[in-house]
Amino acid sequence: MTEGFPAGVVAFAETLRAEGLAVGTSELLDAFAALGEVSWTEEPAFREALAATLAKSPEDRRVFDLVFERFFFRAAEEAAMRQGVREQGAPGADEDGITGGEQIDYDNLREQLLQAIRDGDESAMRDLARLAIAAFGRRGEGSGVLGVDVQRIRRALGLRSEPGGPPPRDPDAPPTPALTRDQIRRFEQLLRRELERAQIERTQALPPSRPLNELDRALPSGPLQDLAAVHRVVAQLKRRLATQGHETRGRKRHAHVDVRRTMRASLQTGGVPVVLKYRPRRPKRPELYVLCDVSTSVTSASVFFLSVLHALHDAFRKMRSFVFVERISEVTDVFERERSFKAVSDAISKDAGVADVSGYTDYGRVWREFLASVADDLHPRATVIVLGDARTNGRDPRADVFASIAALAGRTFWLNPEPRLYWNYGDSVISAYEQHCEAYECWTTRQLEDFVKALTRPYA
Amino acid sequence: MSVEPAAVEDVAAGLRAVGYLPGESTALVSFLAARLGKPILVEGPAGVGKTELAKALAKYLDRRLVRLQCYEGLDEAKALYEWNYRKQLLRIQAEAQGTGWDAVQDDIFGEEFLLERPLMTAIASAEPVVLLIDEIDKTDQEFEAMLLELLSDFQISIPELGRIEARTHPVVLLTSNNTRELTEALKRRCLYLWLDYPSSEHELEIVRLHAPELPQQVAERLVEIIQMVRELDLKKPPSIAESIDWARALLLLGAEDISPEVFRSTLSIIVKHRTDLDTVAERVGVRLGVASP
What we know:
Largest sheet of chain A: 6 strands, mixed
Strand content of chain A: 5-15%
Number of strands of chain B: 9
Oligomer: heterodimer
Low-confidence stretches of chain A: 89-102, 163-176, 212-225, 245-251
Radius of gyration of chain A: 31 Å
């Protein structure tokens, strides 16, 4: 925050941009227009007004919420520090703000806290969080690491999310309804916030601001939700392919009149062919050959890869899929037979028969087998996509065989699930293959989209 | 005539009065849309009340609801306007011989021969309306591009007639089930509202509103189970529409409690996939059996 309210909002938008949200000037103008209509002394209204104008997808909204919390917390703390505001009785600051440590007893505190959490009373929760920190700090259990402290305090208070929670002391009392996980999380956030504030007061300095961690953007591991995202990207790919080439092919060749449809249309005008109907020009779609590594070294990624394969199969007719570990096995028919992703992955892990003895990937052998089985079918319109980490386990990479595959096919792509940083370390031999194909790192859906762009680029 | 909301609370109360319980952000975004004249893009899982929101807004604002249901292959002729070709032909034939072409041409491209489609209706209406463009994600990208002119300037260009500008400012809602990414250009012009599954208290309120005769404890149990089912990894988790249907079914059956038997026999109301049915029967059925012996 440099000065004034508008500068603050602009700075907030800057932070959002840094996190990858597309916040344009028009969005900012909208945000100010919206803020003109609501009272921004109330946090929820202020926040929702900004969110409605700045964050335009569920993913953006998640990032927005994280950034919002962090940004305005920091801004407030910074202002407080500059003006020398200190809280009376802040934990760790001075001791006599709270009436004696020994009087805080955990049971009492917990009762109050449960009530506050259940009512969703935020200010009460915040006060109690501060109380809990004070009590906790006095027992000398603070570890100095925020995350650890939060969990310790939560456990000391006996807050749990399963039904039952802390057993009611009075057996006749109606069983207290259990706290939901969200309610607990809300309290943990407050706890964390207060701990952070105490730390800032102690050290008189803001911790360095960090960008959000990559975790929430990386490929989520729940395959079902994940699958939806992958399907979306592949659907986009399909659409690009459908329209691709219109601009390049365009007016080169003369269009053919579709006599049948022209005659039909002429019925409307009394048999006079006023409107000519042309035969649609259908762009030739590439034939896809996809090879997917399913060995143990890419276990985490192979679920992702299989879902890419699955989605591709929904989108393309002419496509052949292979999975490999030591040997290669064609699974095109499995994908055609099974509609559900789960059945497909089960079938592949059971009967594909790709692991021979060791279960380690043998790229050299895979290339040879692949070439032997499809050499006659490969042609310059074909596209070969390899999904794998290029870790050969010390075996001969046989880049020469791979080169001849790439030469036969029109285009060859390699999707590597490892960050580029790890490429060519250890037994990764991606550089040997990279000379013959276009290699992409691909471990987030965003990177998958980049690949889609490359794949649907018109032929050079 | 039509209502002009003055504050967020008005919108919230108004929507409540017509039988729609808005979340905090829903009321706020609706309010902003009415004040700023910006379209709202509503996204969220199926059955959380996106279309209902438009209907409720129309009722509350006392405006007519103009609805355009989108589908694949929807084109301008179906959405904007079309020339009434047959009528034009009749007009030409009825014209006496010897009338100059210019006179006829002026005649047949008049508003008389224009067939108004939903978007045109919304623009040309003398009274302000609520325009609902339902399931925009089902259309092609070309159609989306065509909407841009309408959404930012509220005008439509017809080559023969010129530009038609909105006489009144419609409140526009676009809904999307998120089956495909909408273009940035479209999103930029809209306020964004994400409707998610409601919290249990909110859902209980909604169920109570739509099935007031249902005993309180059954309603509570119902919401609890629905929330439990949503936690499972299902193809299509039950949404509010399903909760309400279920509540009504239980009411019809006169159920006093949701026993495992009742649950099993009415399961098909909330879960609509073969594989999901098995999962839910297995996971939730067992827990029900234990919870209520």
